[in-house]
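Hi, here's the filled form for the chain we discussed.

Project: internal
Contact: R.S.
Residues: 438
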Amino acid sequence: MPSDPLAGTVIETDGPSPSATTPSMSSANVVPSGGDISMSGGSPSSMYSSGAYYNPTLGAHLRATYTTQSYGQEDGQLSLGTMKLFGADGGMSFIDGQVTMNDASNVGYNLGIGYRWMTLPLFPFSPDSQKIGGVSLWSDGLSKGDGTFFPQVGVSLELLGDHLDFRANGYMPVGERTQTRDFFQTGQLTYSGNSLATQLQGVADTALNIGEVELAGRIANYDAWVFGGGYGFSGGEFEGGGGKVGLRGYATPDLMVSVAIANDSEFDTNTLVNLTWFIGRTRAENCPRGELSDRFREPVLRNNYVALQQSTVFEAGGPLLDEDGQAFRIVHVDSSAAPGGDGSFENPLDSIGDILTNSQTGDIVLAHGGSVFSGQSAVLQNEQLFVGEGGNNPFTVTQFGGRMFTLPETAPGALAGPVPQINNPTTAGVVLADDNTI
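And the returned structure, exactly as it came back:
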């Protein structure tokens, strides 16, 4: 074999020369560039060997791929890509790139560089006498809309043969792992800081680390392969693993079809369908040579997306205004809170004795349901409302514009729970100022 594994279009065999009118059985699948393809004897007996075949003189090629929903991918995805090969000593280097667009019209990309070379099988008694080894590095990116973008880097290892293939792929997100999008108003209210706000519900996407391995075996002498493997993922609160099995091959010389079933504890069971159209593969000058080196032109089989898992998140919208057009201010007090709170919903005061120094005139002071304050007294400022949550006693306030609404619960079930208690106060349980409401 020459140092360039794709050089030339005539292959030396032990049979007659390619100019002979009758090819030998051992070279039945060897076809000079531009020649006719015929089904003949020999191994393999199909007119196409595994992989995608392109004459070396044609350089880059185009492909269009559609993949359905998969683990870590909630939408189908269309991609248009190309692969450019460069000869090197004993192998081929390549650049591969494609743009992607999912069913929601969000775009992404895959860009890789790699090197493939001829080598020997790793293990004795291999059904293949030689292999193609490959390594490639990748950069991927995916948008989910609403200003989100998820970049990742990846690495792929390959060992390809006439009968058995082995692949391993790794994917690692970079940058901000969790991003939010697609918020809408739920019609409910929520607390945020010292404010009341409309509640928003949205989607949080978390990018996952993925590792996967695959072993594929050729089915008899057909251009079809059965494959199986496993994968693992981790990211944020999500962690697990699963497996997949499937079948891939050429429905026509231009169209590769892959169908697989994957299952894991996080994404459940998915049927994965992949259709790849190799544009112009059947032109006369693009005939296969019928040998292992044709597979140098085969695209790297890896995920063309950034794996994400979705979860529901809630956020606060804009603050609500009172009758005077000012934002409501609420000071939260919870006896179970950690010491040193500032009176916000996220960091409540743990003592009613701290209300005076952590509140303003006109505030609503909200003692959380179930609180028990012992040996403490509350001292209020002017025009403050002191409210105790619980006992199925909702508290209603009036919004700017005259709309009335009920304060939301500080925790699920708090409204129906026990009311706050003040036991053994230092002076009066509550020391009033002017225009207070309790």
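Let me know if anything looks off before we file it.
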